[in-house]
Amino acid sequence: MKIAVVGAGFAGLASAKVLTEFGHQVTVFDKAPDVGGVWSGTRRYTGLYTQNNKGSYSFSDLPMPKEYPEWPSGEQVQAYLERYVAEHDLTGTLRLSTEIVRAELTEAEDAWLVTARRTGEAISDPEAYDHLVVANGIFSDPVIPPFEGLAELMRAGGKVVASSQLTDLEAARGKNVVVVGYGKSACDVAAEIGPVAASTTVVARQLLWKLPKKLGKALNYKYLLLTRLGEALFRYQTLDSGMERFLHGPGNAVRGSMVSSVGAVSAKQLRLKELGLVPRGGFEDIARSTVSLATDGFYDQVADGTITVHRDAEVERFTAGDDGAPLAVLSDGTTVGADLVVCGTGFHQRVPFLDDDVTRRLLDDRGNFQLYRQILPHDVPHLTFAGYNSSFFSPLSAEMGAVWTAALLADAIDLPPLAVRQEHVADRIDWMEKRTEGKHARGTNVIPFSMHQIDEMLDDLDLNLSGPAQAKQWLLPVDPSAYRGVSARLQQRVSAG
């Protein structure tokens, strides 16, 4: 088939590599001038590092370089993806600096017409493709809240950017900076700019639990959350294994004690009580939205006054002071300088190049994506999604999702009937919504149940790892290289008919 892939991040590149191996003619579009998605040089905020250790954050057939640190920088991850492109000879599939303006089904709905525009050039004529893979990312379209007084702030010389747009530390030097949010990007940015800014104020509507990279300064968190046991500490929609049934049944007290102990050690190590930054609720709430590591140096800077955190607060409005300087008025009654406002306030989940009719067919009445296995829509033909599952193991998850799509295109999956798939997705989204208290990112939130989702995809294909191989992952961090032969096994099966 002739296949268009929109996005050159982990999901788009994995799709290109796997689908090319199955004989398809693939073209990957990305409006950035380089590969990487969230790791692109155009979107890498200052202070960006992975949350995973390098051993678990890779494709199955290409480990991160040995010389990389335990938690690679954004620049190193992007360089790793460049190497992946070279290793698999994907350069010829790439159309970088090229934005997809529109993708529409033909009248017969048997193909896609894709209209693109290369940076600085006119819109091209539509090209026909047999299949479309949407890999534009769920962290690609940042939300800037509709702050009151935004125009007044800018007239006073203030500036508002998303965290992904703060790619230069010098933009904050000597400025009064307000960071809105308390997720990974907000805390990363605050810690990075704290030493150079005149003041750094973090406005956190809701505090999130954070986990140190090394618990007790000794135990690497990869042994806690990047294992099947760590995942099983939180209740999944279905309890598939005997260990899960034990942990959430007879062993629930033991499980609860384990989770609480981790929370207590984390809070003590990060000095959360001393700093007045203990989140509301229990540590188990860390799994409601997204599990976030504590940023190196963040709490040290809070302790020494470099960073000031206003918890349970919001920006009510922006204004200008008597001297004309930009100010932020907070809901706790505080007024702070706001020369630069950095928003780590989440992302829109949307596909702007699809028309309204197709978009309506993708979503339920609450705006959630209706995707079986986070990949296959119910009612739009010749379309799959890649990377629409926020996962701990994004490279591996993207790769296994690409294998699932390859199997679908080869008619090598025995799919349940449509009505069964629809019921499954509806139940899954209801569960997500309740579990995350609405922070399910329009049905794309998978964390912390990353391995469950990978298992489901591979079980559909009867290509999952053996029992002993999975058992190893209960106590040791998941090693993507264990999945290296999955795509080849599917290719053999398809070739054999």
Features:
497 residues, alpha/beta, FAD/NAD(P)-binding domain, 2 domains, five-stranded parallel sheet, 16 helices
Number of strands: 22
CA-CA gap between termini: 18 Å
Helices and strands: which structural class? Answer: alpha/beta
CATH superfamily heading of the largest domain: FAD/NAD(P)-binding domain
The CATH architecture of the largest domain: 3-Layer(bba) Sandwich
Major pleated sheet = 5 strands, parallel
Average predicted local confidence, pLDDT: 94
Helical content band = 25-40%
Beta content: 15-25%
Tell me the number of structural domains.
2
Rg result: 23 Å
SS element count, helices: 16
Unreliable spans are none
The oligomeric state is single chain
CATH class of the largest domain: Alpha Beta
Strand order of the largest sheet: 3-2-1-7-22
